[in-house]
Amino acid sequence: MAFIEVVGCSVHLPVYGVNNRSMKGAIMSAVTGGRVAPTSRNITVVESLKDVSLHLKVGDKLGLVGHNGAGKTTLLKLLAGVYEPTEGYVRSQGRIANLLDVTMGMDYEATGVENIRLKGHLHGLSRSEIQRKIEDICEFSGLGSYVNMPVRVFSSGMMVRLAFSVATSFDADILLMDEWLGVGDADFNAKAQARLAEIVNKASILVLASHNSEIIRSNCNRILHLEHGRVVSDLPAMEGGQ
After folding, report:
1. Cα–Cα distance measured from residue 65 to residue 101, given in angstroms and rounded to the nearest whole number
2. How are beta strands 205-209 and 174-178 bridged, if at all?
3. Are residues 138 and 64 in the same domain?
4. 87: domain range?
5. What angle do CA 223, 226, 229 make, to 5 degrees?
6. Does 111 lie in the same domain as 172?
7. What sign does the CA torsion over 150, 114, 101, 166 have?
8. How far apart are CA 52 and CA 87, in angstroms?
9. 90 shares a domain with 158
10. pLDDT in tens, 154-199
11. Domain CATH code at residue 161
12. What are phi and psi of 168, to 5 degrees?
């Protein structure tokens, strides 16, 4: 049974080589953001999340809302295992699909097919699972013979199409998204939107950060509001102000 449990989690991100005073001024002048905790002359710590707790079970579709710098992306990266909590702990069960940065981990010197294998392993697929999916991934990407060429000759749009095709090629229990993805030209984007809708519907748990209130309303039944790295409210969607 899929679940996510976050208990008393804080995430402190060190920033090296930046003057504490200038960093503090930059963050304080913003609408919102993590608190600055000076530690030394050349290291500044941004407290991106502070004492966050939540529990997600099967059927939860959680929308993350808040101003830029409120901690939404940091929370998603915490759930994805990209960040370790400075305090507290995260437990989860179920296969996680991470759509936070679909091109992350691509090898520019490797071919498209080799990158399919690499990205598949990064998403937790077994060698046999990847092999079974290669043909369908290549076909969905629409890249033709380019999949046998080094990724360094791809345009940025071609790289995103390949990475998106891999990241959405398997069913996940838990789906993490930072904004709703738009990919490629009109024809490919139509296919991509249909596939996104399909995997969102299939996922047991969804965590979606977005500034678009319509997307949140359409896909989420629960809304978590963050400010300055703290949870302000965690309410059913009808009560969450969206």
Report:
1. 19
2. parallel
3. no
4. 3-94+207-239
5. 150
6. yes
7. positive
8. 10
9. no
10. 998 899 899 899 888 888 899 999 988 777 677 888 888 899 889 9
11. 3.40.50.300
12. -110, 15
